[in-house]
Design brief:
This protein has about 325 residues and is an all-alpha fold. It folds into three domains: about 100 residues, no CATH class; about 100 residues, no CATH class; about 100 residues, no CATH class. The protein has a two-stranded antiparallel sheet. Strand 1 and strand 2 form a beta hairpin. Helix 7 crosses helix 13 and helix 9 crosses helix 11. The longest helix is centred in the middle third of the chain and has 32 residues.
């Protein structure tokens, strides 16, 4: 039993985690899982951490095939496709993350504000000057390449760019192809659900192959002089220093209120220019505020409270976190 307690999944000992999984499985089997924030949050957190843990431990998978990140994507896809998770829970989860509840808006608003305002301003400006041109060239070359291959395969140049290239560029589901499918539906006068189903395969496979490709590149070019070993831009150590914060619910709340207000500004801008999503407007607004030092330092610090990496306390997934009360 002691050895089992030493195995932990995201800071929770294996016996306790197994108990939580069993309780969750029985509740689902009985059809009694609350389809609200409580039940769906538990399902997503427990299954997500479990799949990630398994993928990170599997040989080959953890070295060459993306580890926990890819295994979580694949595992979740298989659980939904083969109806291991009932259809009503899948539908409720989509609503929880999407339009019905909007949990993704909550998460992304806090993430964007906390990440950008919490960065060193000089580093942000320097990184943008180098990163944006490379990104633009990459996107243009990628889109043209996909269009040409699509034409050769009989799918059409424009169709391949719209339904294969763009979905991979936006990156994800909730903050990516979901708003993209709405934009397509509004302009093409089609069904948003039907368009979403066409965009989803490209995004899912693109994410998986991107992770696998990145891992293989790291392995193959480990000793190459062009390998930056995770450092995109050489910077001074002082630029990387972050002020460690003490967890304070009140200050976190103030930071969230500011972040959500910026999100609403993005929504207002989107009302005038519907073809640009509110997330994009939010990023632009926060970037401009940071670049011109328009946000007072105390308020920037409060926004940093919504970013876990800024806290002085170890994260629950960290081995140094005190989890003795969970054993």
């Amino acid at each position: 039993m002691k050895k089992l307690n030493e195995i932990n999944i995201s800071g929770v000992s294996l016996p306790l985690y197994a108990f939580i999984v069993i309780v969750l499985a029985v509740t689902i089997a009985m059809g009694k899982l609350p389809l609200n924030m409580l039940g769906l949050t538990l399902l997503l957190v427990v299954m997500g951490h479990l799949l990630y843990f398994i993928g990170d431990k599997l040989p080959i998978m953890n070295s060459y095939l993306g580890g926990g990140s890819v295994f979580t994507l694949l595992g979740a896809t298989l659980l939904a496709t083969y109806h291991v998770i009932p259809a009503n829970i899948i539908t409720a989860t989509k609503g929880f993350l999407g339009d019905s509840f909007g949990f993704l808006d909550f998460y992304i608003a806090a993430l964007i504000c906390g990440a950008i305002l919490g960065m060193n301003r000089n580093l942000l400006v320097k990184a943008s000057a180098r990163f944006i041109p490379v990104s633009l060239v990459t996107m243009v070359v990628g889109a043209l390449s996909v269009g040409i291959v699509g034409s050769l395969l009989g799918q059409g140049f424009g169709h391949s760019i719209l339904y294969v290239s763009f979905p991979q560029m936006v990156g994800g589901m909730g903050a990516g192809i979901l708003p993209l499918s709405k934009i397509y539906a509004a302009n093409l006068h089609g069904s948003q659900a039907a368009i979403f189903s066409q965009l989803a395969p490209a995004t899912t496979l693109g994410n998986i192959l991107a992770i696998i490709g990145a891992v293989l590149i790291v392995k193959v070019f480990a000793d190459s002089p062009y390998n930056g070993h995770g450092v995109l831009i050489p910077v001074n150590k002082d630029e990387l220093k972050k002020e460690k914060l003490t967890l304070d619910p009140t200050q976190s709340g103030v930071g969230m209120m500011f972040a959500f207000s910026i999100f609403l500004l993005g929504v207002i801008c989107n009302a005038f220019v519907p073809k640009i999503h509110s997330y994009a407007f939010m990023i632009i607004i926060v970037f401009i505020l940071k670049a011109f030092n328009a946000v007072p330092k105390p308020l920037e610090k409060l926004c940093g409270h919504v970013q876990p990496s800024h806290y002085d306390q170890p994260h629950p997934c960290s081995p140094s976190w005190d989890r003795s009360f969970l054993d």
